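Progress narrative, work stream C.
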Amino acid sequence: LVPSAACRSGCRLADMDKINFANGRLLSRSEAEGSERAGFRFVNGRQEPEAREVPLESSSSSGSTKVAEHATEPSMVPSGPAASPYETILGRNAQGHQRRLVLFDGQCRLCMGFVSIITGRDSSDLFRFAPLQSGLGQKVLAWHRLPADLDSVVLHREAEVFTHSDAALEVLGDLDGVLSGLWGLKVVPQFLRDWGYGLVAKNRYIMLGHSSISEAGDAAIEAKLADRWEPDPNCADHICKS
């Protein structure tokens, strides 16, 4: 698009940098300047908002707040799971991968057997553990908006959460050896997997009875506990529904 003869004759060379095209229309100098003042720039003939600069606040050693250097505010924020406050607690393994947290029933012998299997086949040191009934377990359940008395193993993985058969299979998929192949059972419809999981969970105390972390005395489990909980021998109640 070429400026008209009237514009060519009426515009001084020094003002040519103020002549812009927006959506195929020639803007006058005053229009262009007004758009710039409003926070727009011109790219390939289109008006686009400029990135805004916002001050970052940083705390000094004296506790006062001061304005740091400006940082450009992105026009779009990447989508994804919101960061949880528990990733720092869990840390990273030697390869730099974020660790996962497995929550289990702290007085279930079968559940502790599952945790023992994980610790024995976790050469990458990806997993940490906590009873569902522990302070950390309850906080993680609340953060994911899950019931405090949830009767399921729980996998917290980088702000995502898995329960029931999904949790068990996602954990197995990260283990060493042939057990990782059990992840392929996810092709089975979830309602069937969860039915089988629920059947075992409902009868787990009948099958193997009760236990506790201290009673199990498994040093490998205790070394990877993010929090612990012991059942009160004087109280028959516990948080899980079973």
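Work stream C, second folded protein:
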Amino acid sequence: MGENGDFHLTIKKGLDLDDHGRGETGGCDPYVEVWIGPKGPDGAVDTGNVATTYFKTRVLPSAGANPIWNADFQLKGVDPRHAMLMKVMDEQRFSDNRHLGQVMVELGYFRSGEMREHSFRVGPAPGENKSFTGEIVCIVTFTYDTSLVPQSAPAAAAAPAPQYAPPQPQYAPPQPQYAQPQYAPQPQYAQPGYYQPQPQVVYAQPQVVYAQPQVVYAQPTVYAQPATYAYPVYEGHHHHHKHHHD
């Protein structure tokens, strides 16, 4: 088998194809274009690459929005690292064919050796500002060297899980952010109330200091005692006189 494998594709039908604005679907002449090849720098299938294979279904005149093609295609030497691009088109007689949606699928998405029916929802091309609905129903059997894409099947099943898990903790952190500032302003308004009564006590104490000096000036009334010095003056003079008379 080598590196590349055998690819069998059956494009069965389209379901509810509509480009929302095309008008009546009863006159639609749909067909499907397919490219299988390497991807370009933009991540899309490089339709101009020499390694890209192109084929398409037949046009179904007036098939409407639910065409049935049952078109079979078999390719050999297909690289499982490549991708497949399918475009649904509406053939126009006097203007450019109308785009009805497209889908790109990694070939490693298909399990090697498994024949399975797939329903792919179509959408706009990159940069196309348009809305599409509908599906392409296909049967794919691809047998290839699984060592080239060993993680293709598990990755397809596990990829959606981490996409929805991380957003859960993103809504939890904002809750404490709004709760904390609510309690901070409360002590700021309560503290200034304690400074108002303190100055009243400081200014009341000096009143006692000025009342004490009044007692100091009342004590000098003691100086009236020196009147007792008059007694020694008369006693000494009388004694000296008596001695001289004897």
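The longest helix spans residues 230-245. No further action is required on this item.
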